[in-house]
Amino acid sequence: MDNLNRCLAVLIMGLTYKVFDASAAKILLLPIDHLNHVNMLAVAGQKLATQGHEVTILCAPRTEKILTKFTTIEKWFYNFPSHWKNSDLDERLQATVFNGTNWDLYKVSNDLMNGAMGDHVKLLEDKELEKRIDDSKFDLAVCDGAMLNRILLILPYRHGIPFLQLSPVPEPWRAGVLSLPSVESFLFLKASDKMTFFERVLNTIMTVCFYTFTPPVSKSRFHELITKHVPNKPALTQSELYLKSEMWLVNMEHHILDFPHVSHPAYRIIGGVGVKPVTPLTGDLAKFVDGAKDGVILMTFGSGVHHIPEDIMDKLMTGFSQIKQRVVMRSKGAKLSNKPENVMLMDWIPQSDVLGHPKTRVFITHGGNSGQLEAVARSVPMLYVPLAGDQRHNAYKAMARGYGLMIDINNFTPNELVDNINELIDNKSYKENLLKAAAILKDLPNPQDEMAFWVNHVLKFGGSHLKPISLDMPWYQWLMLDILVFMIFIAFIFYQIIKISCRLMCRCCCKGGKQKND
Length: 518
Hints:
globular, UDP-glycosyltransferase, 3 domains, Rossmann fold, six-stranded parallel beta sheet
């Protein structure tokens, strides 16, 4: 009888496991209010939806237009306008990106961060959203891993939802990955995997300062928020909550675009999650591109830049008037009297589809992560015009790989623009390097499939078995400083023993010599 009961118990456990394994999970996506980040998580969500999961994305109302094509995802929108609706903030950003000092850029970036975090506080205070999440019984949250999203991690913690993070920016030290500044360049410095001694010194200083002095939210503010909104659970610190993530998936290509990075089983680098399949162009854009017998130049500075200053636009138009290719350029609301006939201005461009068109010859870009990934996947040489953040770093990486060139937005001339475009088209080495890179990228595991695999793995088993012990070690043990101090101490003791022994031997020898003479 006991054997029969045991067999029945094992059978029931097996059937229960199979039912859970095969059932569709309910997944909540939590991106920051940035169009590229929303697109990245929406593409990931669309992939998960095709596997039978019920996927919901929570984002700002201004993203509704770009989400219309994601028909298999349920959309929840904030019930308030996002911080981007602050016209003064947006105008300051547009002016600062092109003409401001580094200090001006820091101030407006700080205001943008505060605005984003203010939106997240409003979400935590939204009682209707709180009830909606409770009623939905989500099995997993996929959170944007950007630093701006730290406050929003409180949301799944409050509701008892396991979460993992999908991030376009690597933060290896925060996730317990021992990446060495001697070989991995800091995001805001010149990118290289072959640094000089002083470059390694600077890289180390910047890396240590970044992780030491730039917590995304102040400790007191974070403690105030978590104790207020999660009163019935331990008031975790920002770092403790970050480490509760089941996994970290980094949307950064480090085989053919970035330099190789170290990782661990819970920290996976799977670049290209947001790259979508190419779809045919339509309407006037299709006619314009298809009719370009000498090819097309695509130019866009991303979703964050709406207006380009008049003096820069004049130089761009002068340069474009001297080339035989047609130009598709994103410039919101621009009306120019000197626009050449070979230039088409658009408020919005299907960037991925234009890059995938066989007539596209060059991509003029600010150097955003998603755009350069798409360009590499489509084998399109890039002319970088970095504006802020990690964009110059990205440009240096591409130049080191032979994928493109770079010009300074504030100091270029029309002739320099034309010369760089012609160099990228006429010098076949750029195209050849990118064709090889695209072939390597295609041969690697599909990033969306890999992302979906790890999400499903976490749904089945959680992520604790993937995490290394380094996540629980004090920083001085993790960096082996205690071992280093111990070894220095032992070496010092040996030195002292040898030193004292030598003195004693010398004294004995000297004493023996004196006695002999006597």
